[in-house]
């Protein structure tokens, strides 16, 4: 029952308030409507006054036209200035009439004024015509009979209309004044009623305010943020229980003074907090919000987000300030972690490329001001992929970490070493005396890497190629130095690895040339601009061709022939060797099959194709060879693959498996360029080769250098002992040929026999051989 009575009382109170507020609202609406009406009446009065002004201007313009007519009579001519003045006046009268039409609905009177004006203008025009013709007497007659009566009639119409406007304006003004008085009276009644209602409302809502403050207190206690309320005049601060709890204190442990807050601010943040607070209280900053650290009871600092707002007196002086503290320690930890991830290599904990570029940029700026020298070193580990593939990625990662530590030990405290990605590192040397100092640093790093790394109970030895770029000889921007060091590093790697090179402009020119060749080579492969030349291989015992080596040739549409030694290494580095080698293999197999069909009388030819290191590493090599044989119909025994000996020294297990798979197809295998690489006797025994090819560098010195002759003879003897046949490359003289025959070489090729031939030229050779049937060695 008490609840029902309370609800009924609340309902009745609400209804009472409804009617109490309805009366002043209705009166206010009525006053508003009256005000609108009064405003409308005032607008009408204003319009009438404006219309009167327009009438006077209209009359003046008409009178002005009469004066112009009299001036023309006096001058006995109508000047162009006078005609223009008349035209301008008529245009102004047209505008005045349009204004009158908008403000006056009395069309009849306006039509009459318009007609009278037209008569006046017609009379003036006629008078001007007569003056222009020199008929002055007739012009005077027109003035007296037409122009003057028209003007007098216009004057009467305008005076009549003016009196009408003046009367209407007076009546409307009286009504507007009465309305204004009514609006003022209604407004006073509304204000008086609303003031009484406000007093009643204030008294009745005092209890509501007290309950609201109680709810606020409960909200403060339940909030996750710490609330503070600062009396700036007494320096007393109310700290909510949660504020103290955030710092590990009980509610009674901290004094309600600003000192309790200030003395717990981190020393590094105190000045910034004080400066921000003063700027806000002085009015120099519209907001008070910042992040800083507060000392926890356990001795550690917690990050808080502080927000506050002040209450000011009439002079703008703050006397109270309230706000909150939000614990953002976890967010700060996450931000720091993200910052580390953005600037630190997660594996080696070294700075990353972003940091190196940033420090290099600042170093360059300082070098300009202080005239200091700096250098950038790019380092790439040689054959790191072998470590990764053979020992696993965990060992590879451990090696990168260890390399980073050794590099740091070789540098000064102010230098920067960063991991750029993969097995690439960057080094920034600041304030160096010369490029030689950078070179000495590169040598220290290379020397430190020679000591084996002990990883997972294994000793791993690694070398590095290092490129050096400095602002001493070639100043530039950040990107320039980084690019120059990168170019120098690739130059060092191309010179045989385990080297360091200092950048010079010719390297950049070569890099640009290499980039152009790469671009053009890619296009050439796509558009079929390459061709194959075939160099015959001759059996020395019979003088007959037993095979053809397929050699890629490139005729550039603009630059002419591009040597293979120039574009093949680029194809190897960029991976273009895969599609290029695939095309050579297919085309060579197809051509060999065609020769077999065209020249069945000659001994079966084999065709040999060179395989690069990239092709040997390519997972689909065996399938591509099988596909080329299947597609062309060539017998597997007629295909010979030539592989450089150094390819197999990096991963013997995988190499052996690959060779077994290739030999399983029925093809033949050759060791290419024997004598230029490792030339290990153990792999000759382990790998299943059919041919051994002596490199042209050995053949070239047979007649001059006894050591070359000894190497060639030993290679031939060894190959025969292992059941392999020998092919000598680069035979150019008869003396070389005789020496090779005496040593027991089985086959030879070179310019002494034939230069590489096009497929058509080779077919011509076979045709002549068929006709002669007496061997193919030139007479």
UniProtKB/TrEMBL annotation:
Record keywords, A-Z: Coiled coil, Membrane, Transmembrane, Transmembrane helix
Domain of life the protein comes from: Bacteria
Domain PAC: 288-340
Coiled coil: 110-171
GGDEF domain sequence ranges: 372-505
SMART domains: EAL, GGDEF, PAC, PAS
Domain EAL: 514-770
CDD domains listed in its UniProt record: EAL (cd01948), GGDEF (cd01949), PAS (cd00130)
Domain PAS: 212-284
TM region positions: 18-38, 178-198
Name under which the protein is recorded: Diguanylate cyclase/phosphodiesterase (GGDEF & EAL domains) with PAS/PAC sensor(S)
